[in-house]
Amino acid sequence: MPQDAPLERLLDFLRRSPTPWHATANMAERLEAEGFRRLDETQPWQLTPGERVYVTRNDSSIIALQLPSEPLSALRMIGAHTDSPGLRLKPHAPQTAAGWLQLGVEVYGGALLAPWYDRDLGLAGRVHVRHPDGRLEGMLLNVDRAVAIIPSLAIHLDREANSGRAINAQTQMAPVFLQGGESADLDRLLRTWLAAEHDLGDVEIVDFELGFHDMQPPARVGVEGELIASARLDNLLSCFIGLEALLDSDGTQGAVLVANDHEEVGSASACGAQGPFLGDVLRRVSAQLGDGSEEEFIRLIQASRMISCDNAHALHPNFLDKHDAAHGPALNEGPVIKVNANQRYATNSATAALFRTLCQEAEVPVQTFVTRADMGCGSTIGPITATELGVPTLDVGVPQWAMHSIRETAGAKDVAHLTRVLTAFVDRRELP
């Protein structure tokens, strides 16, 4: 199949981002390579019109800003989230059974559990260590090889396995880790892996936030490479596309890319969309480039627009009845405007009209998703950001299959589709 540079960058980003902390670090690395300057929230800021900056919080959420040379009057905001459902280690994870050291897990978010069985699992996340001099330091860890597995029970021992058997996350999801191992082995292995990855000496493991991840690499799938299959497409795909659009833009307009952590668990955290991170940053920007008044800040927010990007449910060929007949988005047929009358999505006719206009100008097809009236509807950062900040917002996304599975599927063409629309949005001089 032909090589596609953006898709190759996407696959590499997905492979190197097994956790929100890694995704944020990789986004920050690319921003710095493109000339963005890192800001520290604990220090005074000196901002200059026309420069590009970024800031992180909790090492798992990131905001990138493109400041216009002209007076700041409106911002083109793109929102996404860095976290994905999965299995996180409990603080006292080691447990033994049948001669095996297993690791107790907690389910993060609304994970589809069955696909986690019989997968080669790596381990990744953030670890805080104490150095011999007493200094505490947080470090990223990515054990990029198969170190665990959750074996299925043979069908011979469970003849009802294909009849909708429930999965108990407490008793049936602990990965097998080390034969004959003991509790102390986890600490020893973490120190060994950290030392190898960071060239460390002797350190003490103080605490960690770790989770398992699928070792099968992202891939183009289909006879003609029509599909992308990977873990964490929801929502690293939107993070990648938003970053591509910001970097592809002409750099003349005020723009923001925000990628929050904790969307999959409700966004209620210091670095989540329901927290103060975006508001804190924008108030400091407004104070630096304006008079700092609350009136000026509100005027800026009301003149701005937010496109919240989170993947949409594509029409599944084996489950056609799960969609409203008139609202079944197809893979590779363009981005999806997500609508819900009960405000589970932030889209309204005004913000949808803007997005449809952008799609028309970029010559990109556009689709619409509304859930069936007899089914519940998920949500995302769009309504939360609109509520917290007051910015006019809409929710869109690339259509995908198998949302919240350990391996999800999207259309390869839709990466370019949404990137073109978001680039046009960032470049647009006038916002309705």
From TrEMBL:
Hydrolase found in the keyword field: yes
Highest taxon, organism lineage: Bacteria
Pfam families per record: Peptidase_M18
GO molecular function, one term: aminopeptidase activity
Main enzyme class: hydrolase
SUPFAM superfamilies: Aminopeptidase/glucanase lid domain, Zn-dependent exopeptidases
Keywords: Aminopeptidase, Hydrolase, Metal-binding, Metalloprotease, Protease, Zinc
Enzyme Commission (EC) number: 3.4.11.-
UniProt cross-references to Gene3D superfamilies, sorted A to Z: Aminopeptidase i, Domain 2 (2.30.250.10), Zn peptidases (3.40.630.10)
UniProt cross-references to InterPro entries, sorted A to Z: Peptidase_M18, Peptidase_M18_dom2
Signal peptide: none
Database matches in NCBIfam families: PRK02813.1
Protein name as catalogued: M18 family aminopeptidase
Lineage of origin: Bacteria, Pseudomonadati, Pseudomonadota, Gammaproteobacteria, Oceanospirillales
Encoding gene, per UniProt annotation: apeB
